[in-house]
Design a protein that fits this description.
Elements (H helix, E strand, L loop, with lengths): L3 H15 L26 E2 L6 E2 L2 E2 L8 E4 L6 E4 L3 E3 L8 E3 L2 E5 L6 E5 L14 E10 L2 E9 L7 E7 L7 E8 H4 L8 E5 L2 E6 L5 E7 L10 H7 L1 E5 L8 E9 L2 E8 L11 E7 L21 E4 L7 E10 L5 E8 L9 E10 L6 E3 L10 E2 L4 H4 L3
Length: about 400
């Protein structure tokens, strides 16, 4: 096994070579955002990685595939992640949780809140399958939770659903929505659900298959007209049917300013500081696509899309699988995972937070410098409660 120092030396050389050119899909003529035009927090600061609090102190915690929503009644944020060991105030050591949920008022300081799988062990998938990449959406009076049930190299993973009257449970579990064989999409994981013009849609898929869009029932608990209908009428948005790391996964659709923005992760996700994972983006004027990058390319081939965030030895490697949250100034913040090469646990996926900007040349979202900030104290999300705004 290579030593970490040798790996980092190789990555540094690679990063220097890549740094000599403009990142894919970025504009060399675009300028970084001016602080003069920004609403900047004066009472909420952050420093990546965003470790959760344990007994009042930041604690290194393995957190992958973060997804965040906000409860519009309490104005608290909730973060959902892939199953992991968590640290709970008042306990000694970590505890395994299949569906960990964290709570925050500022998107920066997170504490463990609950387990969405506290009373349910999914047994409808492949033996030994784990709960990965959850996403939550409010439909009517309920919070629907969707999750992947998969193993590494699973031939037939699937997506399940649960719901609750609160963002943190207790959740009533309804089990499997579909698996890969039933829906006809290879590697059916990484769901993202959104409501558009009164219809409920799910976008999903991963390496080896196509990123696909289907319609759910109005309550989000089933497939509109049944699984066979959706199998025949699903819409491909991106990807290609080849299992390689230039393919795409972790799709998320953001509606903004009359467009639908498709965020995708590509590259190697899970090789520690060797990971090349990164986030790219394309947009469409319809939820069904076609989604094109700023060069007019669709997303049905490798190495397409505009760069949102790329790996960097100075920031973080393997950056991807993002969620998005809005602060009280109306700014979007991207929550994602990466490997902190400078941290105590460089082989752990940990959580990052960075503000999203729009490149005026390409009209695509990106994070500043297109690299994760790391170990730098920066103004965080603008939260009215913290800034004295009523």
């Amino acid at each position: 096994m290579k030593s970490l120092s040798k790996i980092l030396s190789t990555l540094l050389l690679t990063n220097l070579l890549i740094g000599c050119s403009t990142p894919a899909g970025s504009s060399s003529s675009s300028s970084e955002p001016s602080s003069d035009s920004e609403v900047v927090s004066t009472n909420n600061f952050y420093e990546n990685p965003i470790y959760p609090l344990y007994n009042g102190q930041k604690k290194e915690t393995y957190l992958a595939d973060p997804y965040v929503i906000r409860d519009e009644d309490t104005l608290k944020y909730y973060m959902y992640t892939t199953q992991s060991d968590v640290f709970i105030d008042g306990t000694i050591g970590s505890v395994f949780k299949r569906g960990p949920i964290y709570e925050s008022i500022d998107l920066v300081n997170w504490t463990y809140k609950a387990d969405s799988f506290v009373n349910y062990t999914p047994n409808w998938g492949t033996s030994g399958a784990g709960v990965w990449a959850p996403t939550v959406v409010k439909i009517g009076d309920y919070y629907n939770l969707y999750y992947s049930l998969s193993t590494g190299g699973d031939d037939n993973p699937g997506i399940g659903v649960a719901r609750s009257e609160t963002p943190y449970g207790p959740f009533t579990h309804y089990g499997k929505l579909f698996n890969s064989e039933e829906i006809g999409v290879t590697n059916s994981i990484d769901p993202h659900v959104l409501v558009d013009n009164g219809k409920v849609y799910m976008v999903f898929g991963s390496y080896g298959g196509l990123i696909s869009l289907i319609e759910l029932t109005s309550d989000g608990l089933g497939l509109q007209n049944g699984v066979e209908y959706q199998k025949e009428n699903k819409i491909a948005l991106a990807g290609y049917e080849l299992y390689e790391m230039n393919n795409y996964e972790a799709s998320l659709i953001l509606q903004y300013n009359g467009y639908y923005y498709l965020f995708l992760s590509t590259g190697t996700c899970c090789s520690g500081v060797n990971s090349t994972y990164n986030v790219v983006i394309a947009k469409s004027d319809k939820i069904t696509g076609p989604y094109l990058d700023s060069q007019g390319r669709n997303m049905f081939g490798p190495k397409r899309g505009d760069t949102v965030v790329a790996p960097s030895i100075q920031g973080a490697m393997g950056v991807g699988h993002n969620g998005i949250a809005m602060d009280d100034a109306g700014d979007f913040w991207m929550i994602y995972h990466g490997y902190d090469t400078q941290g105590a646990k460089p082989d752990w996926r940990v959580t990052y937070l960075d503000k999203l900007y729009i490149d005026p040349a390409t009209e695509m979202f990106y994070v500043k410098n297109r690299r994760a900030s790391n170990g730098e104290l920066l103004p965080g999300p603008f939260i009215n409660q913290l800034e004295g705004v009523s």
